[in-house]
Amino acid sequence: MNEGQGAAPARENRVLLCVLDDTEELDVALDYASMRSRRTGARVGLLYVLEKPDEFQHWAAVGDLMREEARAEAERRLQDAADRVRRLSGLTPLFYIREGERGEEMVEQVLEDRDIAFLILAANTGNQGPGPLITQITGRAISRLHIPVVVVPGNMSEEEIRSFA
Q1: Of 57, 64, 106, 132, which is most buried, counting CB atoms within 10 Å of its CB?
Q2: DSSP state of 147
Q3: What order do you get walking across the sheet with 94-99 strand by strand?
Q4: pLDDT bucket at 2, cuts 50 / 70 / 90
Q5: 8 Å CB contact between 67 and 52
Q6: CB contact set of 24 (below 8 Å; sequence gap of 6+)
Q7: pTM for the full model?
Q8: Is the pLDDT of residue 3 over 70?
Q9: Does the structure show a pLDDT above 70 at 152?
Q10: 43 pLDDT above the threshold of 60
Q11: Residue 4 lies in a domain
């Protein structure tokens, strides 16, 4: 490999955080983070937030089964995203699983982990606005963060992502 190509050595333990959700533009955020990881040596972090099920004491066994199924789904989704990240960055990503409301848990993860250097989100390209996480982050939550937030247009091509990452 020629000098200047491939992954750069990591500076400290920097993490580029992506939040997994069910949006089409998630792949764009993962690709951007992965390509930036390859260029900078930072690790990609993948956050999956389990929505808290309603708690019913008399249905505890059902609640436990729902939690186990949600956890298994989270692990499957994290592995799928990790495969994509490894293929593009050459590095194994970090996994974070939290339980609660996605936007709030995203902010809490950033506040708790000082290695997270960037939050990378992809914007919805439809008429419904940029998406709930971006709306939340650019509202009141932005004042709580200590890192840059990168909003990648959800309709970027792989070539465009490569040129900006």
Answers
A1: 106
A2: S
A3: 94-99, 43-50, 15-19, 116-123, 149-153
A4: very low
A5: no
A6: 154
A7: 0.86
A8: no
A9: yes
A10: yes
A11: no
As to burial, measured by CB atoms within 10 angstroms (0-12 exposed, 13-18 middle, 19+ buried), residue 47 is buried
116-123/94-99 β-pairing: unpaired
Calpha distance 79→12 (Å, rounded): 25
Give me the domain span that covers residue 113. Answer: 15-164
CATH classification of the domain holding 26: 3.40.50.620
Q: Which residue has the tokens 């848990």?
A: 105
Q: Which residues contact 36 (CB under 8 A, 6 or more apart)?
A: 16, 42, 118, 120, 165
| Identity of the amino acid at 84 | R
Cα 46 to Cα 94: distance, rounded to the nearest angstrom:
6
Q: Please tell me the total number of residues recorded for the chain in this structure.
A: 165
Residue type, 119: L
DSSP labels for 59-77?
A: GHHHHHHHHHHHHHHHHHH
How many domains would you assign to the chain? 1
